[in-house]
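Retro notes - structure team

What went well: the batch runner handled both jobs without manual restarts.
What didn't: labels got mixed up in the shared folder, which is why I'm recording both outputs here explicitly, each with its sequence directly above its tokens.

Job 1
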Amino acid sequence: MKEFFNMGGYALYVWGSFGMTALLMIAEPLLVRNRRKLTLQRVSRLVRSKSAQQSKQSSTNTTGEME
């Protein structure tokens, strides 16, 4: 069993690689979820902004005065 964990003298490299891979596999979905949330918020703001601009333009007549 000790030989298995020692990995023929390459234990630091092997277990370090395994640990880094495990860490990245856990971090990746968390980062993707956060990026998705931020992107949806940005799109929502853009849609609200565009909607507000369109409603403002539709409420003015050709002379630029409010109806």
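Job 2
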Amino acid sequence: MRNLMVAMLGCLVGVAILSSLLIGQSQFPHQLRQLTDHPAPDYSPCWHPEGRLIAFVSEREGGRQIWLVDVTTKRARRLTRTGNNWAPSFSPDGRWIAFISDRAGQPHVWVMRVDTETEPRQLTKYHEDSPAWSPDGSMIAFVSRRTGEPSLWVMNADGSMQRMLVRMPGKEIRHPVWTPDGKRIIFWSNIAGEPSLWEYRLDERSLVQLTEISGNIEKASCSASGWLAFSAAWTGQWEIWALPLVGGKPTQLTELRRQAREPALSRDGRYLAFVSDISGNLDIWLMETPTAMWLKVERK
């Protein structure tokens, strides 16, 4: 029994040390790793479901193009080549990527295969942004301006059955992301005046406000373990915060005292990719998350 207690105490101390390195610190965590390094801006990271690749947007060869970078080797390759392209989102099986492109004039939702040179396919015909694949791969959520102001829409993965879910006259809606169970869509909005995160519950057709602290807040990312990461300037600087999807208070993940924005959680919640100007340029960075975020959070 005494040996068991010592082992448990050792585990708790290890978790405490890891958390102190990642949360509430004044220096860069040693787990922090620079993934891209280029004078041109790199941003909008998105994890491949298997965790081996990250898609991102770069302006390194003119315009906005989508690139893929290997997390282990840091080797990057260009995926899109026509027009301006941004807002990448992988399908759950990792074979497809949805994105926004202006190659046909206005920004529309397009999809293309990741592993072949096949031509992309256009799914929408209006002014759209921020596609997000559902966890089962059957649907894509996106923001459309076809009604005038940005509103939340969904469609089947082949572009059929496009329908509006949320529209708030005079208000903004941005950056939808699905919860792991596919029953809720979280998005940024100023519905209540100040920017905050909201969730739309598809079964109930209802809206719930997730964050209530006033101040700037940006796009979010979900992990299958049940955590939500988002960027906010609540401390006067853009940092990354985390929130359990079952509810609770936000926890600050970074204290870099430089920009830390556009978080992207790996599917298992173990790693966080984000955009920062630590190096003097906007690059993609990686860090390991606290151990608690690796464990699946269950609703009580």
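One thing worth noting from job 2: The domain at 34-294 is CATH 2.120.10.30 (Neuraminidase).
We'll revisit the folder naming next retro.
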